[in-house]
Design a protein that fits this description.
With about 100 residues, the protein is mostly helical. Helix content is about 50%, strand content about 0%.
Length: about 100
């Protein structure tokens, strides 16, 4: 029989598990982590879909509130940048890890 807890843990490995949020994270807490990931060169889509989104979805303490906050924060933080936020643009390369050849 499959151990679903272990299976989900493996799927979410390296997907935001290094971040610890309070049980009811504030906008400032989420924004701080988004800015950190942005400084690493990740595009907004990768931050939301591959790092923090799975973290919030895979944790029983979080729900739609955190996902909505994450979406708003990503849109605000990446508003002045020419990178993809929600969908992958033609310049985005999965192999290179982001938009327009960035890290």
């Amino acid at each position: 029989m499959i151990d679903t807890e272990e299976f989900i843990g493996r799927l979410s490995a390296d997907r935001g598990s290094e971040y610890e949020f309070s049980q009811n994270p504030t906008e400032a807490e989420i924004r701080e982590v988004v800015r950190e990931l942005k400084s690493e060169g990740l595009c907004g889509r990768r931050v939301a879909e591959q790092r923090l989104g799975p973290y919030f979805l895979g944790n029983d303490h979080y729900g739609q509130r955190e996902l909505d906050l994450l979406e708003e924060i990503v849109e605000e933080e990446y508003a002045d940048m020419d990178v993809c936020i929600q969908t992958r643009s033609s310049e985005c390369s999965r192999l290179r890890g982001g938009c327009k050849g960035s890290k």
